[in-house]
Write a structure and sequence with these properties.
Number of domains: 1
Radius of gyration: 15 Å
Oligomer: single chain
Number of strands: 0
Largest sheet: none
Structural class: mainly alpha
Length: 128
Amino acid sequence: MTFQWSDYCHLAKYLQGGRLEGVNPEACHRSAVSRAYYSAFCSARNYRQEKTGSKLPENSAVHHDVQVWFESRKDPSSRAIASQLAILWQKRLQADYDDLPRTLNPEKDSALCILLAEEVLKKLGEIY
């Protein structure tokens, strides 16, 4: 049985609560952002792979490749997925790498990213 990437969205919601004993709430929110992104991205990546059968980059270029593929499609749902993935990717990069991010509000961003990830998952279900 293959891993269900959508399960990361459930984990993100749990982490968003920020109430893990002995864990800094900011770390929970940053982790929620990351898990929300990977829930959406990996689901979208697998959809793209299934639809095209073409080989995907095996490095970080895959993130951009998946976004571009969805953007190139004509249907509004695919274009929305591309746009949402782009926002999620930027938020994930900030959450994972910025020590003192000027644009990161961990609590607000975790809520936004979970919402966006849920939208990507819903849209993928509609176009599948």
